[in-house]
Amino acid sequence: MTRRVLVTGGGKGLGAAIVRALAAAGFDVDFTYRASGREAEDLVAELADAVPGRRVTALALDLADATAVEAFCAAHEDSGYYGLVHNAGQSYDSLVATMARDKAEAAMQVNFWSLTALVKALVRGMIRQRAGRIVAIGSVTSFQANPGNAAYAASKGALTSYLRTLALETGKRGVTVNTVAPGFIDTDMMARYADHRAGLEKQIPVGRFARPDEIAAVVNFLMSDAATYVTGAAIPVDGGLMAQISAHR
């Protein structure tokens, strides 16, 4: 029987790379999108040709809208998903002294609270099946501080801690729960840092940003049968960024 996976924020960038990887691995994939409707349609059409026989479905959902998230969860609670990949994320850069609470709460809603709602709706079905995979995209900023990233890092840190607890609660029930913590990824989200890219790449031991498919490959592994014994992990995929101290010659 084909297993079905839900991916949030799958219309473009890293999310689209994850959708492609999972469909190629034999999963049916539902993915949510917010503003990237055209890209979502193109991705569905692309995969209909690339992986015929796999069902790939785009679902409009704004994770910043808590009411919409709750309605989505209620509608999909008994959908029999084998896996959940929470990729959607919202950034917010601000120094602590000037942080706006509403913007910080918006990032927390997308990055953390929407995940908790989706998990609550889907994990009981996985437990009943005694088989399931939950993977979320975290960030190295939740482990290593960076000026201006307090709100974003806090939301990703909350995500990681929450999933570690969930891993303990589901470990004997066939459900694995893990976080993938990327560093810098070559996507549209990093476009605003274009003027600083050369300097950032000099600080990464491998000397470049990650390709989206490199992060997607790790997610694909965690969703696979080969990862049965991997749970409660937070895996940096950062080109060695966390392996070094920040002050260096």
Automatic annotation (TrEMBL):
GO terms for biological process: monocarboxylic acid metabolic process. Residues 3-188 form the Ketoreductase domain. GO terms for molecular function: oxidoreductase activity. It comes from the Bacteria. Keywords: Oxidoreductase. The keyword Transport does not apply. PROSITE patterns: ADH_SHORT. SMART domains: PKS_KR. InterPro entries: KR_dom, NAD(P)-bd_dom_sf, Sc_DH/Rdtase_CS, SDR, SDR_fam. Coiled coil: none annotated. Pfam families: adh_short_C2. PANTHER family: 3-OXOACYL-(ACYL-CARRIER-PROTEIN) REDUCTASE, 3-OXOACYL-[ACYL-CARRIER-PROTEIN] REDUCTASE FABG. Belongs to the short-chain dehydrogenases/reductases (SDR) family. This is Beta-ketoacyl-ACP reductase.
